[in-house]
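Let us practice reading a record.
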Amino acid sequence: MQWILAQFISGLMSATFLFLMAAGLSGIFGVSRIINISHGAFYMLGAYLLLTCTRSTTMGVWGFSAVAVLGSILIGCAGALVEALILRRVYKGGMLLVALVTFGILEVTQEMAKIIWGAEQTAVPRPVGLDGSMVVAGHAIPQYNIALIVIGCVVALLLWLAVDKTRFGLLIRAAAMDRETLGTLGVNVPRVFTFTFGLGTALAGLAGILAGPMVSISPSMGSTIVIEAFAVVVIGGLGSLPGSLLGAFIVGEAMAFGLLLWPDAALMLLYVLMAGILVLRPSGLLGAKQS
């Protein structure tokens, strides 16, 4: 039972990163109907931002929290600039052209990271104060892992409140349903697009910052995580926040137990699961059925 608990908590930890990534991807797609392959680049930038900050000082809990909040805001602003200055110019070219442009942004960002930080893998220590462990059901669980799960729950709650209980959330849902009608009502729809893209990339940057102490940081880390994030949104349903949460939980636990029980085929099992759900329910588990 101890190893089952350990793997379950490991899966929840992975689900935190995947939910943050998938929620941003799903929100961007729901509003602007674009597949943002560059999402992984902002995740990578979050991890490297944390790496840069830890090189100059020992990071405690409050310092780490400040980097997480301010860093995600900074990365969100960068994402908003990318949408306003680059993507807005290619929307009329269709989904395929936008996907190619976002893929180009991902590749360019990865090459820039190699120039600035180098191509080798590196690591970041856990923040002081969260570098110990606590005993749960007779098994030692790292404190940082528990903190990540709590942060994921808090962010999920805040996102739900923002989308369902605020005026901007109402505008996001209206833009996802009928952007033309929303525009005729006097709402600046391109600004809604930009803000949504910025919020999505801020979530990706936050995911990268939180993942920094847990993964090997490298320029290619964004390409890896974006594949798993797309699997989450496909399983949960594009444009669905609860679907992103459910999909992240399924993928996180499937990868955690798959790597333990059948490590050579864990990634293949993820694709099989995704294909099976697409066959049975093309819109995803909680996605809206297309008429």
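A brief commentary: The first strand starts at residue 133 and ends at 136.
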